[in-house]
Amino acid sequence: MSACVPTHAPHSSPHRAESEHQPHSPPEGPRRFRVAGADVSASIAVFLIALPLSLGIALATGAPLQAGLVAAAVGGLVAGRLGGSPLQVSGPAAGLTVVTADLIHQYGWRTTCAITVLAGLSQLALAQLRVARSALAVSPAIVHGMLAGIGVTIAVAQLHIVLGGTPQSAVLDNVGALPAQLAHLHPAAVSMCALTLALLFAWPRLPGPVGRRLRSVPAALVAVAGATAAAVLAGLSLPKVELPSWRSHALAGLPEGPVLGLVAAVLTTTLVCSVQSLLGAVAMDKLAAGRTDVRRSDLDRELRGQGAANVVSGALGGLPIAGVAVRSTANVRAGAVSRNSTMLHGVWVVAAALFLVPALELIPLASLAALVMAVGLQMVSLHHIRTVTRHREVLVYTATTLGVVLLGVLEGVALGIAVAVGVALHRLTRTRITHEQKDGVHHVHVRGQLTFLAVPRLSRALHQVPQGAETVVELDGSFMDHAAYESLQDWQHAHLARGGSVEITGRAGTRIAEPAGTSAAGCRCRPWTAWRNHQCAAPAPTPTGSPAEEPAEGPSSHQLARGISAFQTNTAPLVRRELARLAREGQQPSQLFLTCADSRLVTSMITSSGPGDLFVVRNVGNLVPKPGEESADDSVAAAIEYAVEVLKVRSITVCGHSGCGAMQALLTTDARGSQTPLGRWLRHGLPSLERATDKNRPWARIAGREPADAVEQLCLTNVIQQLTHLRAHECVERALRGGTLELHGMYFHVGEAQAYLLTEDAPDSGVFDRVAGTTGEAGSKGTALHDTRV
């Protein structure tokens, strides 16, 4: 559609933007700094989680407790402002606890701060090299194993504090000292631990409506506050938080120690901080994938922001910083819409560090230790264990976990990488090839990756197939190198030449497109589905080196003939049985789908429907002329009447789309005075234009946001207006009144490949919401169609 209507002319928004702008650009205007209410509430929720955890992690590392507050504030303000993941919250992370504790034990606090600064500079250098995405090449089994090993180390160390003692520097030493520690329990510390853990695990499970409201308060805050209140009321004598004066706060000093040891420490800190932050950013993208108001993460920028935050935190005497999954998840679920939430949480931490010191110094250390111990145990995730077991990577996970626990973080990760490489090589070389005959058909099953190492075994299995036999080759793997491909093709050509048949299938018998050189009409592509809009390569040179001669037809007819031939070869066998059934029984569609003639709208694809499901009417601009205004063109009205009266469809959908050329033409040309066929047809869209420019009507909204520009506003409004025209048809009105018909409004954003349905909450204002997994059924009152919110 857009090819026949000029779309480059500038236009202005009807009533929201006076300045000219290109289609699909946001309306221009003065930029003002505003903080959304959702960001304020989310920042408070994150702050309430971050405050006790930051103190607990500082306690677990052996650093000054103020260092945790410094890192939390810097993570919010610096990483939040400069980072590339708008919703990720950074700060002192449990995954860095073991690394930091080891550094403090070996080099002291001031040198640890210097190492943090150097690690930040390393992250800035890596960001300049744009290598952030290479961190994603680390196997998830290694990352999960590293976190599990760190979690075990944290839990064992904090158990000593919970019991009233002092932890050792190594896990084995802590385990060996447990019997003596258990023989000298401190009942007060144990009671505070038990109360903290009870509140921590019971609070999220409070039943009923009251419990649902109470659960909005973070469990970590409730657990620490409850234990603190109990300790104060009971007058227990326990070690408590001590926050020295900020005037005596230790800052970074010059690094002291062996050069190789310091280099290894910087590399370890850089690796753990970077990998945890980048994987966290990717996880936040997945968590916020259904939202259009949040941009995807820029991983190089995120690495740069984390580096800057570590430089500042280390220089100010704070802990190393990384993205924190618990706080980031809470931020997203609390409804944060921008990085302002992360930055505000840093402001609240600064305020607490300055003005809440007397209250913080009432917190028992045993309560913080219990909180961190619970976090450590949660890092050993049963979900992760089930996942790596399902993917047959439990050996990598176990090796990494044990390596971190027994040797250290860097050594454990290196051991995990070595085991992962070994497992990958084992899988690459271990290929199982079997041959069997079943019901007269010879089956050759290849399980595993098909490389040159497996070619001899593949050749032996294929040559066991008799000449002229019907053969199925099942490739149950994800990789085939050139040597294996050539061997399979040579055998297939020879077998076909001797009168045999060959079908190559994938896993579970899915048919694979014919290999290159054998497809119909010279098409040299291998489409991943029968309907893929692939582009064929140029014809291969002839044996003499000259280009193959073009057929007599022109390029368009050649492409059409090639497509028809590919359909007969690849697609027709898949749909022949269903089409034969439809030919016998006649068409019985359940829906009338009225949409634009734009070539980018593939109705069957975006509705996941098959032959016979939809009765489709397409025209320029998905317009429904009002009864009596068809101007001698009754095609749309005839289709509506036939669908409702004869086919008895149960629903009618009007589907608009982004970048509609007809809507752009309505905005930029005067359809009233046009005498061309296209101009006369577009007059049926004038009511939509009038509705969109009516200042007394609110703008339609799409997934919680306003339309990007006037064109999108008109595209959305046009769907609502055409539904109004649709209800004016007598047959439709009668079916609606009888309850046998529903009306649906739909908008397809081409660039996002995302469908939106008109919801029933605000039919007059036109709220289009994202289709995400499931939809709730609704009636067809007004423009109320489907409520698609999950």
Automatic annotation (TrEMBL):
Of which family is this protein a member? Belongs to the beta-class carbonic anhydrase family.
User: Record's superkingdom?
Assistant: Bacteria
Per UniProt, what is the membrane topology?
Multi-pass membrane protein
Concerning InterPro entries, the annotation shows: Carbonic_anhydrase, Carbonic_anhydrase_sf, SLC26A/SulP_dom, SLC26A/SulP_fam, STAS_dom_sf
Provide the SLC26A/SulP transporter domain boundaries.
38-398
Its annotated compartments are: Membrane
**What is the scientific name of the source organism?**
Streptomyces ossamyceticus
Q: Where is the composition biased (Low complexity)?
A: 537-557
Q: Which PANTHER family match?
A: SULFATE TRANSPORTER
Region annotated Disordered, chain positions: 1-33, 536-559
- Annotated membrane-spanning segments are 40-60, 107-129, 141-163, 183-204, 216-239, 259-284, 346-373, 394-425
Q: Main site of residence?
A: membrane
Main function: Catalyzes the reversible hydration of carbon dioxide to form bicarbonate.
The UniProt keyword set, sorted, is:
Membrane, Transmembrane, Transmembrane helix
Q: Give the matching Pfam families.
A: Pro_CA (PF00484), Sulfate_transp (PF00916)
Q: What is this protein called?
A: Bifunctional SulP family inorganic anion transporter/carbonic anhydrase
